[in-house]
Amino acid sequence: MVGPVRPAQVGAEHVARQRDKTEHKVNILVTVAEQHRDRLDAIADLLTSAGMTVAEKFPLGGVIAGEVATRNMGRLHTVEGIAAVEEEPIFHAQG
Fold first, then answer.
1. DSSP per-residue letters across 38-49
2. Number of domains into which the chain is organized
3. What pLDDT is attached to residue 5?
4. Has residue 42 been placed in a domain?
5. Which of 27, 40, 33, 13 lies closest to 81 in space, CA to CA?
6. What is the extent of the structural domain holding 32?
């Protein structure tokens, strides 16, 4: 049985949810170094722990696509096996 929820807990959870809603996120492509591509799933898990939301993994190209809050971009570079972290280009139609 779960005990009563204290107001401090509810407040902290609420603040975290609100921050997630207002935080600026960018779409990114992470390239895994060739010698680490056999660990693509493990690296994706590490990127998730570093704050990235993984959307897709492309094993043949060694690329992991997803989004991350701009404040967490630097953390992704600390994951062993990463060759590059790039913002995904966004194209707009001219009309």
1. GGHHHHHHHHHH
2. 1
3. 54
4. yes
5. 33
6. 24-87
Whether 55 and 67 have beta carbons less than 8 Å apart is answered as yes
State the residue for tokens 């609100």.
18
Phi/psi class of residue 51: alpha, beta or left (left: φ > 0; alpha: ψ in -120 to 50)?
left
Q: At 79, list the tokens.
A: 């994951």
Letter for the amino acid at 41? D
Q: Over the stretch 26-83, which tens digit does the pLDDT of each residue have?
A: 999 999 999 999 999 999 999 999 999 999 999 999 999 999 999 999 999 999 999 9
Here the CATH number for the domain that contains residue 30 is 3.30.70.920
Contact 37, 47 (CB under 8 A): no
75 and 28 Cβ atoms separated by less than 8 Å: no
What span, in angstroms and rounded, lies between the C-alpha atoms of 57 and 46?
A: 13
Tell me what pLDDT residue 88 has.
77
pTM, rounded to two decimals = 0.72
